[in-house]
Amino acid sequence: MDSEESIPLIDTRPKLQDTDRCLKTRHVLAIWAALGFVCVYALRVNLSVALIAMVKTKGQNITNTTDLDGQCPAPGGNKTTPDKNGDFEWDENLQGIILGSFFYGYIITQIPGGWLAEKFGAKKLFGFGVLCTAVFTLVTPLCARANVYLLIATRIVEGLGEGVTFPAMHAMWGKWAPPLERSKLISFTYAGAQFGTVLSMPLSGLLCDYGFAGGWPSVFYVFGAASCIWFVVWMLVVHDTPAQHPTISLEEKRYIIESIGIEKQGPRPPTPWVKIFTSLPVWAIIVAHFCNNWGFYTLLTCLPKYMKDILKFDMSQNSMLSALPYLTMWVLINFVGVGADYLRYNNIMKTKYVRKMCTALGLSLPAVFLVSTGYVGCDHVMAVLLISLSVGTASFCSAGFNVNHLDLAPEFAGTLMGISNCAATIPGFLGPQLVGLLTNSNNTLGQWKVIFYISGAIYLFGAVFFVLFSDGEEQPWSKKPTALSQSPVNVIPNDYHHTKLQDQVPNY
Question: Where do the DSSP E strands lie in 33-162?
């Protein structure tokens, strides 16, 4: 790819003309990919809500003053909570292991998922990954009733299926996303994950209370069946590359292929593993991804527990309010993606600085809001507001480190996502276990304040590391040395000035 300095002031290369269709083929891909991530996160987080209904709990007499054990009064004053006749007697520590078990499988298929998607195509890998998780979600009630360890094994297998989804989608967008549309297309796609959380949490609460098959089992049946239906449509309408798509317009096909500049003649180069693992900008992504996911996964899996045990919301309130932070994130994430590409397209900021700024905001703001939550005590409104802001402002990362893989190496974006998401999966099982250890027999506001402090410190470390060591340009080890001699394509650099692209890049 050309460097910004090597581009002549007068561009003599053939100009690329995009199709004038309002709904382009790559937009259709983004819609179905986003719906796929709705399924991915609905299948992942439904257990966080269902577990509350699955476990037996004793009723409590809750007053309108803070309890001696450091818990809060219920919103609305004094009340007595009834005994919960759940099916299982699992302590806090075992519940943490169950919630975290998904990530033991999830971590295994990250790197293989990225490599397989780049080598054999992302469409089938992403689709069958979701289908695998959906099928095992359907049998979750049966496994839970048979044996708790069978339930844990089932969740591990579900993690194996979902582990390929993010690397596969990064590999797919490496073939489909024009450079100056990366932020908005990828942000929109991954916003589906947040919408899946928004949808699944309240719906899971309603199904636990009013669903069929005894309540909580219907949670797994509904989301499992819906994901199977999505799989059928995905396999019918999506294709791995623009060149393989049967109905894409010739203008859009040429625009995508030539602007990305990676579909050239010759075999795919081998993955430069050593150079990847010795690249400091790659490590900046890995560290930022790990730190972001520590806070994100801790809240994703344990927020319903905090709402129920500390803030004393009932099941219906709990599921609705637990979804509110992710609704905030879903709304913000699309604005962030469009805004980031606007800054790059109009040459207001170079790609490198856009990524640094977005990641710094997406890690430091959640740290501030999360730590602040520990100081509002039993103010229910402020606690929910601050947690919502903590999760919501993390959306800035969607235009930061989360898309930076494509900047550094579009040819190997799936592999890079697999590597960083592999490291970032570790908080998925360590976070819930740490919460279980800190709150087991001592589930108090003070202990949750410690949890928030730990997450805040990790957030800030990730922000500093990324700002210092990240980059925004394609790395030398990602470029094909003979690319220009093989094909006279018009490759658009990450920071190519918009005045040279006025006829090549669609308006926002």
Answer: 60-62, 79-81
Q: How far is CA 398 from the centre of its chain?
A: 9
CA-to-CA separations, 370 to 166, 329, 431, in angstroms, rounded: 26, 15, 15
pLDDT average, residue stretch 10-24: 60
* 481 band by pLDDT with thresholds 50, 70 and 90: low
Which backbone phi and psi does 353 adopt, to 5 degrees?
Answer: -80, -30
Residues of 346-360 as b/e, b for ≥16 C-beta within 10 angstroms? eeebbbbbbbbbbbb
d(CA 160, CA 8): 48
Burial track 69-88 (b if 16+ CB lie within 10 A, e otherwise): ebbbbbbeeebeeeeeebbe
Q: Quick: pLDDT tens for 45-75.
A: 888 888 888 887 755 554 444 444 456 676 6
DSSP one-letter string for 171-224: HHHHHH--GGGHHHHHHHHHHHHHHHHHHHHHHHHHHHHH-STTSHHHHHHHHH
How far is CA 249 from each of CA 244, 253, 257, rounded to the nearest angstrom?
A: 12, 6, 12
Tell me which DSSP letter residue 490 carries.
-
Residue 357 backbone dihedrals phi, psi, to 5 degrees: -65, -50
Pairwise CA distance, residues 409 & 416, whole Å: 8
Kindly report the pTM of this predicted structure. 0.75
Amino acid at 425: T
Q: Is 123's pLDDT higher than 90?
A: yes
Mean pLDDT of the chain: 81
3-state secondary structure 375-414: CCCCCHHHHHHHHHHHHHHHHHHHHCHHHHHHHHCHHHHH
Are 129 and 159 in contact by the 8 Å Cβ rule? The answer is: no
**What pLDDT was estimated at residue 193?**
86
